[in-house]
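Just curious: can you write a single protein's sequence together with how it folds?
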Amino acid sequence: MNDMPLNAEWIGRLDMYIKALKGCFYEKLGPIAFSLYEPEGEAGRLLSFEQAEACGYLPISEGAAWGGAWRYGWFKGSFTLPGEALGSRVVMELNLGGEASLYLNGKPFGTRRADWVLEKHHHLCDQVISHSGVPGTRYDLYAEAFTGHFYFALPGTAAGPLTDLSVLSPGNYQKPRLGQCSFGVWNEEAYQLYLDIQALYDIYLSGDKNSLRTAEIGAGLKHSLHLIEFEEGSARRTESFILARAVLAPLMRCVNGSTAPTLYAFGHAHIDVCWLWDINETKKKCLRTFAAQIRMMDMYPGYKFLQSEPVLYAMIKELYPGLYADIKERIKRGQWLADGAMWVEPDTNIPSGESLIRQFLYGKAFFRDELGVDSRFLWLPDVFGYSAALPQIMAGCGVDSFSTCKLDWNYNGGESFPYNHFYWEGLDGTRILSSVQNEYTNTMRPADMIGIWNGRHQKDVFGYPAAYGYGDGGGGPCRDHVEYALRMEDLEGAPKINMEGPSVFFERLRAAGTDNVYSGELYFPCHRGTYTSQAAVKRAHRKAEISFHNLELALAMLRISGGSFDKEALDRRWKTLLTCQFHDILPGSSIERVNREAEEWLNNIIAENEAELAEVLRQLPGDNGTSAFNPLGWSREAFVKAGEKLIKVRLEPFGFTPLLSDEPTEAERCAAHTFAENAVLENNKVMVIINALGAVVKLLDKAAGTDYAAAGPLNRFRMFRDIPRKYDAWDIDSMAFDEEIPLEEPGTLEIVTEGGLEARVRLRRSIHNSVIVQDIYIRSGKGDVLFETALDWHETHKLLKTSFPSAVRGDCAYDEIQFGHLKRPIQPSKPYDKERFEVSHHKWAAVCEEGRGVGLYNDCKYGISHLGNTLDLTLLKSAPCPDPRREEGEHRFSYGFCFWNGSFLDSDIIKKAYEFNYPPVIAPRLAQGGLCSADKDNVIIETVKPSEDGAGIVARLYEAKRTAVKTRFAVHFPCKGIVETDMLENVTGPVTEGNEITLDMGPFKVKTIKILLEDAADETL
């Protein structure tokens, strides 16, 4: 006989008995017969319970098909408890054919969990309608079930190298069928025994096989199994469960020693604002999940549940006010943890710095004003990398701790993130206490919790946070999860479970301290395709951010002149933009319907902002005529169209310049001509030769005599076969760059503008199955080469880049991010550098030597790669999953290439990129302008806006070139004084009287200044 307490025979019996116990949980008492109402069209998707209750229902039999893609069905049924229910726990078994919101006796009850929840009893154990049944009690049940749409059957949401993409079409949707539905008795004794056996079995399998604890568990499990009588009648069987559990009770009472680790465990339901469903379905997911969790709190008073994202609370407040009131009551009791700081859990690579600040501004305001919570914790469990600008923004918004799980997801191998707990040091040196968890949907099985501890990166780590529960519409934690957590409060062989939220964990971690510091971006070595996927959404998003910048600048001018505006409408549009920054919307990893709706929302924002901007400009004081309005805070030379004519104007900071028609001098003129199959553009700065592929084969800097195309053609289009092994729209795998597709078919070149202020040539050529039309041009007195592109895209699993190799030899690339830039190595000398073969950036990237450099700026692109001294801008990615359109159709984007002689500090690429993205706005001829200025070239005034309290004007500025400087910030209109604030506009310093203040700007430091208007009340301070 085997000396081990549990040999193979006993292991087999344990597995068999655990399965058999699950079969004993539920005893059916009677069926639930349903009638069905199926709303027609989109309006039916927004029915309230009260509206649905009054509709006409028709009987539906078991096995009948119902619904269709994107359809909801309302089921109505009732049942009465028979005598057999007396004193018993009564539950429901519902198989409606889809995830469903449940209403019992007229009130939100919870959820019929999604079918992907494979543990059958998890669909039952929470559906407790009575803890002690009373015969004759009648229950009226309504269920709003979602028929859904196409869900890919392919693993990992990857399409793979498919030849038949019809399998991804929502048109292949199969109607669901109504399954067997019933109510019955829940055998709590069987359930509790199952949980005890599973918990001890997990500890046995995970523990030291030579320990006394393992031996005693093995013996106890054998003894308990001897007592179980599955084949007896119901009463005798239940009695055997009680006896078996009594045998295990001493083992369940064994506690840990003083060195046992502690996990801070809290319930969680990660609900994507949009992903494989649209935002209307998200509202229903919130209803189901939140109602279910309220009942979980009623069952378990010590249970705590974290829910972030004010946007979800706002949905519940609007649609389900009764449930919202219940949530607020649970927040007061300390059971419901409302925390997370941001409006949504956004992507942090793509939004602007100002957008990230507004995430906190609107998010924290909702937590404070609606829920009575000062949120100081940022919760971003599922975001695809974390900008190095975030620590400064967090600190500036009153947030002092941060947690994610995603960095532990490195399924591509390479270097693991080194820490669980650390201080994250941002661009400017700000440090935020941070923690990397392993997962945000833990099961709380002891085996999983032991695995979390054993798999930690820091073997001396202080505690560990652990979020548990089904996400994505799964309904949050079920009873199993909470029961396991309660068993492990102090169970020998498992980590101690402290049922507290992140704020308590971080409070204790801060007191314990950590020496670990991680500086720079938290790069996620997966999901690199999200910098590029759904290019149309990203373009609309960039333009929407710019439209807010321009409008708020004009609104500040209106406020100064005594006017007013609709703050509520502005806030509404901001919240829509912030919602579009959710980490499956803006990154492009959602279904077609979500992408289409997001693009529509963003374009509506742009239209509304531009319409209001035009109206505001008309209200400002001025005279007749037309001017060019400069939305940037420095003097600049710009080119604007007056009708069909191009005009060169000199713009003052935040000012208005009359549009006057002046002919260029001979020295200012550009010229264009063709020879052989090439085209030549020339002015007094550069000569540019372009071949029939659209590549710049010569770019001569006339002053220095340098050919910046000497290392290879610039603007060379490169296409790669892009078939990620795991997550299609999310990923770009490294092997993509080993599978380049030749693009050798030449196009045609046509001179569009022969000379004057501009010389322009138009390229038309085929690229694989797509067609590109690109205008390549130069302008008077400028050395930049500009590329304005229209691309008719018809590709599947292809990645398109434009490549700019350079003879400039730098050791790193400079990539703009929010409020600064990163320096990333060009030559991959270690694994971490190799993993960053595709990175995110914003408006510009550059490669520099000590005395010269080259740069590439763009109007809507975010992905880029650097190999050697190249700048390879990623233009498009055509992943068919989860959006089978794979971005078919026309795309528009522009970019420019520049060079300079001198150091990076002396370069003007940052301002060039701003000017490229913020063209002058045609406006009435106005006298007002100037507003404010900073006297140092490396200080950018990023934002000027009315203050949130209406008492002044807020200016946000930052140091842009990684060098400390003192700057004089001057106000050019009458004011009472100037005061520094935090990023949420809370005053942090004394008022400086007069119109100037001197600011110490450290490297990449962001400052927020409030200008007090003369008509503002003193109490605003």
User: Anything to note?
Assistant: The longest strand covers residues 889-901. The chain has a mean pLDDT of 94.
